[in-house]
């Protein structure tokens, strides 16, 4: 299996170029459902230790069903598929450019939650125009074990997020363990209170916000991902959910820029335009770098060829 690794603002992406499972035909959403239910070993072998680690996002490159798209892609992590993934879309664009498959300019990718457009600005810099993001609930208060009440918004940015405006802890690398523990407890509190996304969807990402460290940035965040890892980048889909909230609260005008810092200090430049259904169409601009090209070997005698599972 041939893979190309990259990181976007510190968050890793592993693009599977060939050697992935045959998912048949159909929409990306249909093929993604097959990947998640019938090819658990494949996903685990790509992203889990000993070849990967908890933060790696896999990106399975597939032929698109929409002829306007240059590529189809299914994103997955150490737990499940992701509907969309902002950092991995930037990583995929830079990877395709590294391979000579796309040049500067606009291109479309098909994902399980819709078509996204990218602008390859240079070899490392990509602007992603995401699917429409929106806020479902404002100011939901839940009880968090060992902490007390926490208030946040529920919003969609390609994945479901619970966004807490004022983090109870400082958003610094030294607090990553404590932030991970707190956000896991917030997620358990949401589950216990029965708070979900639309149609009962699990809110699998938790996002805390606080003051930026760089005077040029507007805000800093910490994002818990579904499998318990934290996002090293400011999280593209999380930023999309944030833009939907900023727009609805009247804090950011269409076209105005917002610089979002991650817990490690990396940044994305954000803006939005009004969406057709009352939400926003986010643009996320960031940089990715290719870090390796590799051939993954699954030796039938290797007891951990399908990853170390907890
Ligand atoms: O950038 O959207 C994102 C993302 C989701 C999970 C990790 N990164």
Describe what you observe in this structure:
By secondary structure, the chain is α+β, with helices and mostly antiparallel strands. It has 2 domains: 2-130 and 290-295, Diaminopimelate Epimerase, Chain A, domain 1 (Roll); 134-274, Roll (Diaminopimelate Epimerase, Chain A, domain 1), CATH 3.10.310.10. The protein is 20% helix and 36% strand. The chain has helices at residues 28-38, 40-47, 86-98, 176-193, 236-248, and strands spanning 2-8, 11-18, 57-62, 71-76, 81-82, 105-111, 114-120, 125-129, 134-144, 148-156, 160-164, 205-210, 219-224, 258-261, 267-274, 280-295. Strands 1-2-3-4-6-7-8-16 form an 8-stranded mixed β-barrel, surrounded by 4 helices. The two termini are 24 Å apart. The relative contact order is 0.18. The structure holds pyrrole-2-carboxylate.
Biggest beta sheet summary: 8 strands, mixed, barrel
Number of discrete domains: 2
Mean pLDDT: 97
**Distance linking N and C termini:** 24 Å
The CATH topology name of the largest domain reads: Diaminopimelate Epimerase, Chain A, domain 1
Using the CA coordinates, give the radius of gyration: 18 Å
Helix content: 10-25%
Return the CATH architecture of the largest domain.
Answer: Roll
Number of beta strands:
16
Task: Supply the number of helical segments.
Answer: 5
Structural class: alpha+beta
Query: How would you write the strand order of the largest sheet?
Result: 1-2-3-4-6-7-8-16
Shape: globular
Low-confidence segments, given as residue ranges, are none
Hetero ligands? pyrrole-2-carboxylate
